[in-house]
Amino acid sequence: MTKTAIVTGGNSGLGYATAKKLCDNGIKTYIIGRTPEKTEVACKEIGELAFPVIFDLNNLEGIPGMIKDIAKNGPIDILVNNAGINMKKEFIDVTDADFESIIHTNVFSVFSVSREVVKIMKENGDGSIVNISSMTSQYGIPKVIAYSASKSAIEGMTRAMAVELAQYGIRVNCVAPGFIKTKMSSKALDNDPERKNKVLSRTPMGKLGDPSDIGDAVFYYATSESKFTTGTILPVDGGNSIGF
């Protein structure tokens, strides 16, 4: 029987690579994105197992209805909480509204989507949730205080959810990407040679990762390959988090 997955923010970057990996392996995948055209184009490119769901995850009140609509088509086996936003600003310049905005998108929406999907997974006695964290929760990086706080929250939530949901056959794990070659990261690093050198010099493997490296890690967690694994955080970073 075909498994079904949801990937939030699956229309670009790491989410796109993840959705593609799932679809390439015969998993029906709903890609949640805010932008209709971008999300629909991504689904066309990925193939017939990819289905667009146009929805803004900041609309917390609408999340239960959106998940129910997806579940009308059958059980949800896999949830990948990938959507997130970042903001680079000096600590003292971050306003309360800035901080709240990042936490709202990166933590509240992950909590709400997970809660609604768990209701469905619990009925089926099975499921895998994969959260996407970041190097910012592994060590301190300047000028991303709100993002760091949000990703640290994601890792704490991963462990708490894993312990509470194991009794229902639901596993919860987390992938913590290092520096990955995406349009966004390439632009940032190419404009800042000093930072790029710093990144590469403390990455033992001496290069940036590919988005597909994240897709592969998520696939491991999403499937029965990891059936005895829950509550773990997997850095996929070329050794960056332990590099010197």
From TrEMBL:
Q: Which UniProt keywords apply?
A: Oxidoreductase
Q: Report the Gene3D superfamilies cross-referenced here.
A: NAD(P)-binding Rossmann-like Domain
Q: Name one Pfam family in it.
A: adh_short
- Quote one Gene Ontology molecular function term: oxidoreductase activity, acting on the CH-OH group of donors, NAD or NADP as acceptor
Mind telling me which residue stretches traverse the membrane in this protein?
Answer: none
Q: Which family does it belong to?
A: Belongs to the short-chain dehydrogenases/reductases (SDR) family.
Q: Which NCBIfam families match?
A: PRK07231.1
What is the protein name stated in its UniProt record? NAD(P)-dependent dehydrogenase, short-chain alcohol dehydrogenase family
User: What lineage, starting at the top, does this entry show?
Assistant: Bacteria, Pseudomonadati, Bacteroidota, Flavobacteriia, Flavobacteriales
